[in-house]
Amino acid sequence: MKTFKTVLIAVLLVVLTAQCAPAAQTQAPQTGETQAPLFFGAFATPIEEPWDGVIHQALQKVADEGKIRYEYTDDIGYAGDMERVLREVAEKQKPAAIFGDAFGNEEAVRRVAKDYPEIAFVFGSGLGPAEPNVAVFDNWIHEPAYLCGMIAGGVTKTNVIGVVGGYPVPEVNRIVNAFIDGVKEVNPDAKVLVTFINSWFDPAAAKEAALAQVDAGADVLFAERFGVIDAAVEKGLLAFGNMSDQYELGPDHVLTGPVWNMTPTVEYVIKQIEAGTFTAQDLKDFSMVAKGGAYLAPFHGMESKIPENILSLVKQRDEEIRNGLFRVDIKEEPPAPTN
Hints:
Pfam families: Bmp (PF02608). By secondary structure, the protein is of the alpha/beta class. 44% of the residues lie in helices and 15% in strands.
């Protein structure tokens, strides 16, 4: 009898173990999901502003794919609140990484990063990286900006083209200068009007500046800053977006535009953090055409408004850029007046 009971207990234990095993397997993936690293976005402007919007979209994309958890705060401004926000996030949420734009908040970002070396600070900056934990990036979209300039030079009827930028700083200048160089390749006689609104996000001022350029004869507009496309729509003119595909802001008006894709940068940082190898470095290469960090926005059927010879040349230049056969010069000085 004792032997029978022993056997019976052993059988029951085997059955119970087999029944419990599947439950443990179904819980494992859930545990993995909760351990996805937290990335935080700290943005000085509203995310409607294309520069910060591009970073936000890339972070949201990888979060939707389950690679990270993602939270953010925007419209922090430049009046001293960035440091407070970053310290609160670092203390209370302890993220694996904080992404954002340091322009206008450089000192605050670097001060906070120094006090939290265990957090990866990955910020848009015109300065260099700082050991041990501040990596920097920037938008390097001068190559597709050049292609846009070629198109602008080919579609203008008045030979006057308007560009509205934020500040005359190297990051903006190289985009505007590349655009102008593209114009000049196909239309040496064209005049390019350049206005800086001295703000990173002031749609009303950008629109007003664009309308002044229209009054001065411009019939094509390049919206380096948000708000210019509104002027193009109001006046029935063609325009170029910037940073992201902005066709929806002006269907039948926006031809294309330089697009900045931050996903390669974000994915690289994720891999570094997962491997425990994050270092302070300049992530510039991941925002270039060669690594998929920049490209020309889709035409959405608007190529019908571009002369065939110009469109063909643009496609040729695009391919040459990708293959390293054509170099768009990087000019970071303020744009010189044209014709």
